[in-house]
Amino acid sequence: MGVAIMDSDTQELLKTIATKTDETEFYTPIPKGYKLGQTKFIVIFGTVMSGLGKGIFSASLAKLLQMKGLKIAPIKLEGYLNIDSGTLNPYRHGEVFVLDDGMECDMDLGTYERFLDLNLTKSNFTTNGQIFTKILERERKGGYLGRDVQFIPHVTGEIKNQLRHLALSSQADMIAIEIGGTVGDIENQHYIEAMRELAYEEGKYNVCFVALSYVLEPKSLGEQKSKAAQLGIKKLLEQGIQPDIIALRAANKVTDKVKEKVSMFSNVPLSRVVSMHDVDSVYLIPGLLKEAKIDEQVLEILHFDKNDKKKLNPKNEAVEFKRWQEFVFGIKNYKQQITVGITGKYTSLRDSYASIIAALEHAGSRLKADVKIKWIDVEAIETKKTTVKEELKDVSGIIVPGGFGKRGVEGKIACVKFARENNLPYLGLCYGFQMAVIEFARNVCGLKDANTTEVTPDCKAKVIDILPEQKKIEGLGGNMRLGGREVEIRKGTRAFAIYGNKTKIRERFRHRYEVNPEFIPLLEKNGMVFSGKHPQYNIMQILELPKHKSFFGVQYHPEFLSRPLAPEPLYLEFVKNCLK
Ligand code: GLN
Questions:
Q1: What is the residue with the minimal CA distance to atom 7 of ligand 1?
Q2: How crowded is residue 432: how many other Cβ atoms within 10 Å of its Cβ?
């Protein structure tokens, strides 16, 4: 692992002067109750370029270690200065994933929740914005005792502090750290330095470094080239990080020759250089890594005692791995194929709808169906470049996902109308729930100018609105209603049956507007059933049309809760109905 072991004197010194920043170069605020060396860390860096699937790789590796019986807590260290991902454009950065505690974070957290079947919290996600805010707040309070505040040791100290807090709060056996961005980016330099310090302080065999790199295969040459990977890893070495394991992304299986070259130039034994080539589904990656025995290598590097029955559970590992492989088998060995239409703005970017696609895969695997996606260009429908009928002619169902603002709204409403009138399965998610209410109000209840005040603030029938009396509750009004909330389900409805006859479920929300209670009696009189609502307030959360083959809308985002081995019930129902 190439890191110095700190002698016991230094360790002692570190403990006693941890927060006395003016007397020492060691500034590492060690949380109360934390013992250096008590937790194992695995750190994943990306080199050469972004977009290699670092999150999927990290989650897959963490999954294998979790299957072994280890308690894993993942964390992503994000390079941007935003405090969270809430204000980021999903078409640029991928979807905004919402945690139960309301944290709006990077889509990789979604990957972690799905792979590890965990509910994460804001302590599993940090950004430079969060780190610097903490430091600047402390500085204003005179917390640095007359010292100039520096990247080293204060910023790096704060990063390590957060990791150790996570170790304490999660009681995990291992913290899996994903460093955002690519080695060489200015914004993650201090994260990398903090990892070097972490390894130094935690001591030998407690921190494992993994570098994910990329092997080029230019068409003009027809062979794999390792130089870019070598240079990327060299960059990491320059910063004092000797990787223990190297994973090589590539279009095709990485050849032995290339692996040997990378091994030789980076001091990493050949058995710890692994090919992570393109595969049909991201869920195949754990299997790929297991075949390469990378999980065993991690245990060896971190000196886990294989006989430690408290931590490792080989019997359970076999069962867990089998269950995972069965899920993967379901994805690959389908009996039926269907196409589901999804409306979206810049629909070419799959990342902006990552959780929806994952939820369809989970349901598909369970039902042995391959669910293909057709992106519906609602703006082309609006501008009459195409018709709804034409766009939806070959789909078995349609999803209108979450969204904000005016763009494409009339096209979405046209799709809802088509689905409702033609008995085509419909699933409206958040904005799609609101679109279903607007369409129904216009075309069934006769409120011709019904709309949301998000689009037309002065329309007559404000069926979707921010209501002054609701503004005070639960962040509606100026703020978004964010995170996990309870939904009360009405007995005897289809939603009640779908959710296993439960009267209360918990789902994740991210919205500002809601159904205007003034219109609920009219909507209900005309046949819309609100089968889920807020337990206390008059906030509608699930709608259904009982006579329709499958017509549902939800104010929440069920896709955030779908897991490979536990598909979200509403998605399962939707796909089932699409198959009929
Ligand atoms: N724009 C709508 C609102 O703010 C829906 C939000 C969403 O779809 N996430 O209520």
A1: 402
A2: 25
> Has residue 504 got a pLDDT over 60?
yes
Ligand 1, atom 9, lies closest to the CA of 402
* Ligand 1 close to Cβ of residue 511 (< 6 A): yes
Q: Is the CB of 431 under 6 A from ligand 1?
A: yes
Measured over the CA atoms of residue 85, residue 89, residue 94 and residue 98, the dihedral's sign is positive
Active-site residues, by number, are 430, 557, 559
Secondary structure (DSSP) of 75-119: EEEE-SSSSSSTTS-HHHH-PPEE-TTS-EE-HHHHHHHHHHT--
> Does residue 68 sit in helix, strand or coil?
coil
| Mean pLDDT to the nearest integer, 50-63 | 94
Q: What is the pLDDT of residues 345-367, one digit of tens each?
A: 655 567 889 999 999 999 999 99
Strand 481-489 to 504-511 pairing: antiparallel
Q: For residues 528, 531, 536 and 537, what is the CA-based torsion angle, rounded to 10 degrees? A: -30
Rounded Cα distance between 551 and 424, Å, is 8
How far is the CA of 456 from the CAs of 410, 450, 460, in angstroms?
12, 9, 9
Of the listed ranges 195-199, 311-315, 426-430, the least confidently predicted one is 311-315
CB of 474 within 6 A of ligand 1: the answer is no
Cβ–ligand 1 distance for 556 under 6 Å, the answer no
Question: Is residue 4 very low, low, confident or very high in pLDDT (cuts 50, 70, 90)?
Answer: very low
Shortest-distance Cα residue to atom 1 of ligand 1? 404
Q: How far is CA 541 from CA 185, 310, 576, in A?
A: 43, 44, 22
User: Ramachandran region of residue 189, left (φ > 0), alpha (ψ -120 to 50) or beta?
Assistant: alpha
pTM of structure: 0.93
- Ligand 1: distance of its center to the CA of 92 in Å? 19
- Predicted confidence at residue 12, as pLDDT, reads 63
- Residue 147 in contact with ligand 1 by CB distance below 6 A: no
pLDDT band with cut points at 50, 70 and 90 for residue 15: low
Q: Scan for tokens 């002054």, then name that residue.
A: 468
Closest by CA to 217, choosing from 289, 277, 285, is 277
Closest ligand 1 atom to residue 480 Cα is 4
Atom of ligand 1 nearest to the CA of 464: 10
DSSP code of residue 405: S
Does the CB atom of residue 95 touch ligand 1 within 6 A?
A: no
The position carrying tokens 């790096």 is 156
* 55/20 Cα distance (integer angstroms): 36
pLDDT tens string 57-105: 999 999 999 999 999 999 999 999 999 998 888 878 889 999 999 999 9
Position 149 scores a pLDDT of 92
CB 62 within 8 Å of CB 176: yes
- How far does the centroid of ligand 1 lie from the alpha carbon of residue 512, in Å? 6
What are 309-315's contacts with CB under 8 Å, separation 24+?
Answer: 311/69, 311/70, 311/173, 312/68, 312/69, 312/70, 313/68, 313/69, 314/68, 314/69
Which atom of ligand 1 sits closest to the CA of residue 510? 9
